Structure formats: C-alpha cells, structure tokens
C-alpha cells in the first residue's frame, strides 16, 4: 500500500499565490501544504520515497523539490478533475492505496485510523467541520463534500446534503485495500463506459467529476464504504481568505 497525493491542479482561487508554484507548495503556517501532508502520512508509517504524486500544473517545480517521489502526469489536468486525476495512477492502485487531496492540512491521527481500519473502502470524516465555515464567505457550506452515515457505514455522499443532516465532511483522505482498489477501478471503468462526454452527477460531466461522484454511484449500487473520524483536525485551503484563517483554525483544532 502506497500513498497517492492528487496534486495536478493549479488552485486558481488562490490568485497570485499559484502564479509560479502549484497549490500544494503554497505556504500555510510557515511551510508548504505538502509538507503538512507528508508529516501526516509519516504518522501512519509512510516515507517520502513511498509517495506517488500526481502532477500537472508546474510539474517541474514539484519534481525538482521532491525527486524522491514517484511521479505520474495528468497531462489533461486543465480539462478534467480529481477523479480522472486519481485514475491516471491506475497502475499503482491494485496493491491498495491511501489517497489525499493536495490542498489540505490534517492530523496524522486521521491517516493512522484509516490505515488501521479493517474495512476495504474507508473515508476520513471531519465531525466538527462547520466551525470553519462560520466566517468563510468565499466557500460556503453548500460547497462542502458532506456525508451521511449510520455508525461507521456511509449511506450518502453529496454537496447537496443539508448541513444539519450531515454526519460530517469528507476531508479528501481515503484508504483502499487491494480488494477496495479493484472495486474503485471497476466502478470508474463502468461509469466511464456509460457517461464519458456526458453530464453525470450534480450537473457535472464525467470528465469533471469528483471522487464523491464515483463513491456515491457505487453506494447506490450497493457497495460498502466506511468512515473514520477526525473531530476538527482538518482544514482546506482553497482561497486567500482560507490562508488568512488557517492559523486560527489550527490553533482551535484538537491535537488528536
């Protein structure tokens, strides 16, 4: 099992911060977001040489700074989205994997819980997610990748879930065993065969789909997904407003 960092996009909502570097290298609280991610992955036993990095925008910058990574190129990053980006690394998926968005900061305990779970398809859920949206004007709660769950079992994933009915927010960190990984690849191929070039879920084309679009499709077909929780030990850095709030959010988050 290896960790996969999905970092092909630019992060245009950060404006000039990403003019010369990709989003993952934007400093948050004194160091690049990617360094926070590597620290969290390290808490679960993953070293830098284990990392598979999916690159696109300014790929040469990441490659020069982190030559120890295994790089996969998403050459079509300007026209696709995070689901297609992950599947660029499909040759690395069969052994099982942990995947993470590249524009987030989170506690290593969340990764440790996911890896330790006995379930095949595990998503990390932030149960204290709403506190970060109180003063967040550029990224409202309606944009959150929310989930509903019954105990550990996830029953729905959608931005359209009403906030008061959500069990929490999917933070963008997953764990899939080899069996789980095979399900993901098969689910992607089945969806692509039906929906390539067409509008798929929540008004998005298949090419512009998010991870939760595929996961929800699989849930509706009877596939089992489970959650592990962090209770506020996560934040997304999507806008310059988020950058300005990061230090406060982190200071107010739990240590575990």
Quick description:
The chain has 256 residues and is α/β, with parallel strands linked by helices.
Protein topology:
Layout: E1 2-6, E2 27-28, E3 31-32, H1 33-43, E4 52-55, H2 59-65, E5 70-73, H3 82-87, E6 97-101, E7 104-106, H4 108-116, E8 121-126, E9 146-150, E10 153-158, E11 168-176, H5 178-195, H6 211-220, E12 226-230, E13 234-236, H7 240-251
Parallel strand pairs: 1-4, 1-6, 4-5, 8-12
Antiparallel strand pairs: 2-3, 6-11, 7-13, 8-11, 9-10, 9-11
Helix pairs in contact: 1-4, 5-6
Plain-language structure description:
With 256 residues, this protein is of the alpha/beta class. The chain is built from seven helices and 13 strands. Strands 1, 4, 5, 6, 8, 9, 10, 11 and 12 form a nine-stranded mixed sheet that branches. Helix 2 links the parallel strand 4 and strand 5 (70-73). Helix 5 (178-195) packs across helix 6.
Count helical runs: 7
User: How would you describe the shape?
Assistant: globular
Provide the low-confidence segments as ranges: none
Average pLDDT works out at 96
What's the count of strands?
13
Helix content: 25-40%
Radius of gyration: 17 Å
- Major pleated sheet: 9 strands, mixed
Which structural class matches the secondary elements? Answer: alpha/beta
Distance between the termini: 24 Å
- Write down the secondary-structure element order: EEEHEHEHEEHEEEEHHEEH
Strand content is: 15-25%
């Amino acid at each position: 099992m290896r960790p996969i960092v999905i970092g092909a996009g630019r992060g245009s909502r950060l404006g000039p911060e990403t003019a010369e570097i990709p989003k993952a290298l934007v400093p948050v609280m004194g160091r690049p977001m990617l360094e926070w991610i590597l620290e969290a992955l390290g808490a679960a036993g993953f070293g830098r040489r284990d990392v598979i990095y999916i690159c696109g925008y300014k790929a040469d910058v990441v490659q020069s700074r982190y030559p120890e990574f295994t790089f996969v190129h998403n050459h079509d990053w300007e026209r696709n989205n995070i689901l297609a980006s992950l599947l660029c690394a499909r040759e690395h998926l069969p052994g099982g994997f942990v995947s993470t968005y590249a524009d987030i900061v989170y506690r290593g305990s969340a990764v440790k819980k996911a890896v330790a779970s006995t379930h095949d398809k595990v998503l990390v859920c932030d149960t204290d997610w709403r506190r970060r949206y109180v003063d967040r004007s550029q990224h409202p709660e309606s944009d959150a990748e929310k989930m509903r769950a019954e105990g550990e079992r996830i029953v729905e994933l959608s931005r359209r879930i009403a906030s008061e009915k959500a069990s929490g927010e999917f933070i963008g960190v997953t764990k899939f065993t080899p069996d789980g990984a095979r399900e993901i690849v098969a689910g992607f191929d089945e969806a692509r065969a039906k929906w390539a070039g067409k509008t798929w879920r929540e008004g998005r084309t298949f090419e512009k789909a998010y991870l939760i679009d595929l996961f929800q499709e699989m849930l509706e077909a009877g596939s089992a997904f489970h959650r592990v929780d962090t209770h506020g030990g996560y934040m997304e850095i999507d806008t310059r407003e988020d950058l300005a709030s990061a230090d406060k959010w982190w200071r107010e988050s739990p240590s575990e």
